[in-house]
Amino acid sequence: MKNHNCKEILSKVFQALDGELSREEELNFLDELNKCNHCLDSFEIEKSFKVFLLNKINKSECSDKLVEDIRLKIQSVNLDEEEQS
């Protein structure tokens, strides 16, 4: 059996919060969190902070025209780079 390593577990907190762990990694991570109050507390603090930030962000959509203008600008830059090569 592997010993619990707080530093290793805490290095995966952001990956876990962002849904970047595989199912197996996530299960192992959660199992390890439940073994250590310090790790669990740290995870809960980061999770709460992320929720707080997400609630404070003003989400707005871009107009179709803005999206198209950006797309055309990117295509233009790509063409310019190809011509210089």
Q: What does this 3D model show about the protein?
A:
- This protein is 73% helix and 0% strand.
- It has 85 residues and is an all-alpha fold.
- The protein has a domain at 6-60.
- The longest helix has 21 residues, at 64-84.
Secondary structure tally: strands: 0
Coarse morphology = elongated
Residues in helix, %: over 70%
**Rg, Cα atoms, Å:** 21 Å
Estimate the strand proportion.
Answer: under 5%
Q: Enumerate how many helices there are, as a single number.
A: 5
What structural category arises from helix and sheet content?
mainly alpha
Order of helices and strands: HHHHH
Write the layout of secondary structure elements.
Blueprint: H1 6-10, H2 13-17, H3 23-33, H4 37-56, H5 64-84
Q: Main attributes?
A:
single chain; 85 residues
In brief:
Helices cover 73% and strands 0% of the residues.
